[in-house]
Amino acid sequence: MKYLKFLALFIGMTTLSGCLSDDENYCSQTVQPYVTQVTGPDTALTGEEITLNVSFGMTEGCSTFVAFYNNNVYPRTVAPAVQYEGCTCSGDAITGTEEYIFSEDEPGEYGLKFANGVNEEGTALTYIYKTITVSDPD
Predict the structure, then answer these.
(1) How far apart are CA 109 and CA 133, in angstroms?
(2) How far is the C-alpha of 98 from the C-alpha of 39, rounded, in Å?
(3) What is the three-class DSSP state of 11?
(4) With 90 as the cut, is the pLDDT of residue 133 above it?
(5) Among candidate residues 73, 75, 62, the one with its CA nearest the CA of residue 31
(6) What does the radius of gyration of the chain's CA atoms come to, in whole angstroms?
(7) Cα–Cα distances in Å, from 31 out to 56, 95, 100?
(8) Sign of dihedral through CA atoms 129, 63, 93, 27?
(9) How would residue 26 be classed by pLDDT, with cut points 50, 70 and 90?
(10) I want to staple 79 with a disulfide (CB 3.0 to 4.6 A). Which of 20, 32, 63, 109 is the partner?
């Protein structure tokens, strides 16, 4: 069992630190940082796009927001993707805020969840939940 844990850790570490060029001193990786805050409206009309402001940690000088990843089932898990360039990153910790656009064509309640850490035992993610009520225009 210890061998399998070591193997999983080794594969994860080599995947995250993999180089994308022939230069052995060039490193790049994409991570999904924890979300610190989600703000925006709780209601929308069918077909209307609403904007949620999603804040998350980044490092100044070597990280760039790439996109939001999400699944297509509800509650929908939404995660920012941040690209880090360089083998070392010594910039200051900053908070990045990006716009997540939400829209649905059917009335109902739609749940979004954004990972914001792990539980005390370190065994499961914790989430910020955002419920948006979509209704037909009168």
Answers:
(1) 4
(2) 11
(3) helix
(4) yes
(5) 62
(6) 18
(7) 12, 15, 17
(8) positive
(9) confident
(10) 32
Structure token pair of residue 78: 């939404």
Question: Which tokens in the block code for residue 106?
Answer: 């059917």
Positive/negative CA dihedral, 3, 12, 115, 50: negative
Instruction: Name the 3-class secondary structure at 22.
Output: coil
Q: How confident is the model at residue 1 (pLDDT cuts 50, 70, 90)?
A: very low
Q: In whole angstroms, what is the distance from residue 94 CA to residue 57 CA? A: 6
How far, rounded to the nearest angstrom, does the alpha carbon of residue 12 sit from its chain's CA centroid? 18
Picking from 58, 33, 42, the residue whose alpha carbon sits closest to that of residue 109 is 42
pLDDT in tens, 40-56: 999 999 999 999 999 99
- The rounded distance, in Å, linking the Cα atoms of 138 and 10 is 57
